[in-house]
Amino acid sequence: MKLKVDKLKQVAKHHKKILLFLFGIALIGLITGSIFTTILSSSDKTLVKNYIVEFINKIDTHKLNYINSFKNAFVSNLIFIISIWILGISIIGVPINLFIYFAKTFMLGFSISAFVLQYQSKGCLLAFIYIFPHHVINIIIYTILLIFSMNFSKKLFLSIKSKKAISFQNVFKRYTVILVGAILLISLTTIIEIFITPLFLQKILFIIK
After folding, report:
1. How far are the Cα atoms of 65, 143, 158 from residue 43, in angstroms, in the given order?
2. Is the pLDDT of residue 3 over 60?
3. Which ranges in 42-133 belong to alpha helices (H)?
4. How far does CA 116 lie from the centroid of its chain?
5. Three-class DSSP category at 180
6. Angle at 138 between CA 98 and CA 194, to 5 degrees
7. Mean pLDDT of 133-154
8. Does residue 1 carry a pLDDT above 60?
9. Cut 0.90: pTM above it
10. Are 150 and 94 in contact (CB under 8 A)?
11. 89 near 176, Cβ under 8 Å?
């Protein structure tokens, strides 16, 4: 475990500029997503509130379909991860990856603000439980995968620019290992999101009622 943590530290140190750039994008996405509810029309705000209330009521009354929810969440996360990975193989995929990374953090910020919009101060606690730790871990996974994706695209671009053949066997192998690791971790965080987080939300709902 310590060895894996050390490797992550080395990746972060070696790609410090890219990491800071992605952190900036994630921060902007979270902020813009959080304030987006303030510019919604009254009808749109009502739709958002109704969706949050329906979601919370399903959890509170034990009517959440866990199996379908798990399938939907896992497939959504899987498509997102594989898209980043595939787009990393092409040079033109970098800006698309950055956009969908921004969109992911934007939606997370929007989800947080939706809870606050409906439940005010209590919504902060509900939002925290909703995003921690699985959504936080997911963002870290996406960030690491995106770093390797951008690095792979960079090597490919330099190879084409210099018109020199470069052996990508080791690079591609490591890139594939990162994908497999991301899928395994996403499976774990999805289990937490669907089967564990609702239990904590039920406890909090019981307390704050």
Report:
1. 28, 35, 51
2. no
3. 42-60, 66-89, 93-131
4. 20
5. helix
6. 135
7. 88
8. no
9. no
10. yes
11. no
